[in-house]
């Protein structure tokens, strides 16, 4: 099976996401996809070029980095499923509102045209505030599956949610069967 695997700019979780990818590559052909932030931004958590090289090494191909490269992932180059791990609040909001102004949102839009599973592993500091309505919108959407999530630091970041990335493969497996992994809240 061919799986699109997208990373967005939750830089503190990129290493965990790459660990998930290393597990998935054992059972799936992976098409790597990165947001513009991941492809261009160096942070205290790592350099963009290092992330791109790691993706290329694991997947055997360079990540999709441009909107024009992502658009064919629908009917022309279909994927069996797509995973966004991590998915930032910004990307979550764009997906909920149908905005396709980035590589990852275009890949997701193109993919969803085929009613195939989109698995989202959230990592956002505003999921229980500004982005709660967007999470609720996506929870209701056909073909969208969420990796179970919980508060990562309720005292210091009371609005923050993060998916348990270790549940990504199990969520993907069930999504391919049209089922949401439960419980959703952990």
Commentary on this structure:
Helix 1 (14-24) runs parallel beside helix 3 (48-59) and helix 5 packs across helix 7. 37% of the residues lie in helices and 18% in strands. It starts with a strand and ends in an 11-residue tail after the last helix. By secondary structure, the chain is an alpha/beta fold. It has one domain: Flavin prenyltransferase-like (Rossmann fold, 3-Layer(aba) Sandwich). The chain has helices at 14-24, 36-40, 48-59, 67-70, 89-97, 103-112, 132-140, 168-175; strands at residues 2-7, 29-34, 81-87, 118-124, 144-146, 149-150, 161-163. The relative contact order is 0.16. It is built from eight helices and seven strands. Helix 7 links the parallel strand 4 (118-124) and strand 5 (144-146). The mean pLDDT is 96. The radius of gyration is 15 Å and the shape is globular. Strands 1, 2, 3, 4, 5, 6 and 7 form a seven-stranded mixed sheet that branches.
